[in-house]
């Protein structure tokens, strides 16, 4: 089984998805839990193997690459797979009570089937070494995400899902056109083989066109400003467990795709010297950090506030990538992991509020610090990390970003990172002020959320502090992953 783990990582949840759809809601939850926990075990085992043995190449169907499909696993993509599997494993016990409250019983089994398919698609994107398979798995994860968002109890969830469907389809079309253009010019779909063949035809104008199509398609999927318009409503009106899962995984996998195409497939020289990508990504990421943080400050719905915050945080990740250095890419990869922890915790805390209060509007949260102390303490913990307070993962991310900016002599960019932190303090404080410094409404009888929701939330909060205090593991893996992606070049 050890030798087949790369395939089993994807195949096991893929086979369990139809099983979940055919059984009752409670049994479907058990099937989904088995899929998530298997994926976490397999991804950790693969990380240990990659660190010990180096890059793993797994041939599918006995056909040697580049002629056959290959799963190619290195430190960069197994790190992303662990993020997806970890968030899935933590979200699924949280989802049992949350989904039972927000989705009717007759649709529960279908929800868990879609959840497993979304997990499968995201894991497949991470581990495949074939660019067309990237598109296939992207569609699997996206279609299941659309359906999960549409299950939200607010009727606006349908509109949000439809908006996401339209923009996601546009992004997927751009990606498949870019892949098709590369195939026409090189005759291969294997990423490693493309990396060898593309430089031979780089002078042909088709290659920059393919690069542009892929860049636009992927940045739409990862919701980089100004292609983020699908994200706020999708996060706001989706069921709480869906928001926590997608916010922590889907955009992170899209950022990984950006890294993989820019540094492995096209190469750093073509991406940053020929196409001068940094001149596009850096301004957009700076605007995303400042503008989206400002928009978040004026939101009255906390899920929507956190959604705009997510667009700003994506700006931090892309800012790290735009430096084109080992330190910058390390910062971006570290923030992939760190943001998954902190934003997962924050959205889970809001799911607990939704469960007990029935609303996540700020004015409905008066005095919750007294009546829901564990939930609001979790929100404060996640908020401190989002701000970047020392001893949290947010501080580690921003420390690496500031270092990367100063390494390039970009003092104003380092200042933007610090300003973004101050703006995060403002919108987190809005919630804290209402929850802790106002009195609860005596007409409402509010109780603390169930333990099955609080424990997963606090696991992510505790992880945010643990990896903030001791970042040696994440920093080591991220640095090695960055060196793998860009060949150790400064």
Write a short abstract of this structure:
The protein is an all-alpha fold and 490 residues long. Helices cover 78% and strands 2% of the residues. It has a two-stranded antiparallel sheet.
> What structural class is derived from the secondary structure elements?
mainly alpha
- Give the helices and strands as they follow along the chain: HHEEHHHHHHHHHHHHHHHHHH
Please give the order of strands in the largest beta sheet.
Answer: 1-2
Low-confidence stretches are none
Number of helices: 20
Radius of gyration: 21 Å
The tally of beta strands, per DSSP, is: 2
Helix share, percent: over 70%
The shape is globular
β-sheet strand percentage: under 5%
Distance between the termini: 39 Å
Give average pLDDT, whole number: 86
Q: How is the biggest beta sheet arranged? A: 2 strands, antiparallel
Explain this structure.
This protein has 490 residues and is mainly α. It has a domain at 277-490. Helices cover 78% and strands 2% of the residues. The chain has 20 helices and two strands. A two-stranded antiparallel ribbon has the order 1-2. Helix 16 packs parallel to helix 19. The longest helix has 32 residues, at 326-357. It is globular. The model has no long low-confidence stretch (mean pLDDT 86).
């Amino acid at each position: 089984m050890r030798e087949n783990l790369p395939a089993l990582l994807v195949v096991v949840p893929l086979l369990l998805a139809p099983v979940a759809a055919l059984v009752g809601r409670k049994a479907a939850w058990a099937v989904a839990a088995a899929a998530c926990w298997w994926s976490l075990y397999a991804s950790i085992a693969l990380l240990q193997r990659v660190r010990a043995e180096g890059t793993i190449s797994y041939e599918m169907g006995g056909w040697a690459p580049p002629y056959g499909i290959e799963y190619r696993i290195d430190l960069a993509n197994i790190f992303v797979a662990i993020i997806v599997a970890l968030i899935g494993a933590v979200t699924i016990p949280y989802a049992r009570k949350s989904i039972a409250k927000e989705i009717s019983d007759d649709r529960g089994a279908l929800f868990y089937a879609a959840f497993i398919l979304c997990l499968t698609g995201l894991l497949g994107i991470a581990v495949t070494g074939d660019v067309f398979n990237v598109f296939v798995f992207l569609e699997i994860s996206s279609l299941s995400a659309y359906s999960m968002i549409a299950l939200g109890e607010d009727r606006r969830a349908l509109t949000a899902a439809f908006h996401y469907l339209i923009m996601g389809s546009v992004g997927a079309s751009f990606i498949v056109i870019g892949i098709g253009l590369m195939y026409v010019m090189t005759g291969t779909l294997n990423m490693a083989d493309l990396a060898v063949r593309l430089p031979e035809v780089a002078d042909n104008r088709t290659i920059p066109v393919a690069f542009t199509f892929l860049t636009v398609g992927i940045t739409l999927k990862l919701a980089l400003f100004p292609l983020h318009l699908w994200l706020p409503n999708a996060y706001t009106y989706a069921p709480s467990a869906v928001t926590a899962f997608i916010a922590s995984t889907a955009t992170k996998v899209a950022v990984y795709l950006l890294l993989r195409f820019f540094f492995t497939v096209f190469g750093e020289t073509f991406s940053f010297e020929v196409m001068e990508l940094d001149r596009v990504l850096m301004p957009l990421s700076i605007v995303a950090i400042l503008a989206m943080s400002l928009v978040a400050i004026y939101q009255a719905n906390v899920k929507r506030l956190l959604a705009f915050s997510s667009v700003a945080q994506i700006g931090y990740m892309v800012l790290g990538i735009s430096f084109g250095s080992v330190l910058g890419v390390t910062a971006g990869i570290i923030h992939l992991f760190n943001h998954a922890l902190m934003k997962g915790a924050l959205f889970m805390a809001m799911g607990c509020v939704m469960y007990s209060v029935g609303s996540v509007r700020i004015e409905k949260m008066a005095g919750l610090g007294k009546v829901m102390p564990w939930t609001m303490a979790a929100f404060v913990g996640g908020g401190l990390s989002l701000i970047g307070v020392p001893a949290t993962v947010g501080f580690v991310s921003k420390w690496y970003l500031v270092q990367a900016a100063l390494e390039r002599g970009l003092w104003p960019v380092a200042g933007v990172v610090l300003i973004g932190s101050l703006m995060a303090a403002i919108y987190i404080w809005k919630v804290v002020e209402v929850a802790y410094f106002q009195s609860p409404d005596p007409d409402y009888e509010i109780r603390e959320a169930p333990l099955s929701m609080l424990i997963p939330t606090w696991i992510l909060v505790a992880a945010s502090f643990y990896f903030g205090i001791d970042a040696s593991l994440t920093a080591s893996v991220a640095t090695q992953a960055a060196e793998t992606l860009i060949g150790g070049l400064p």
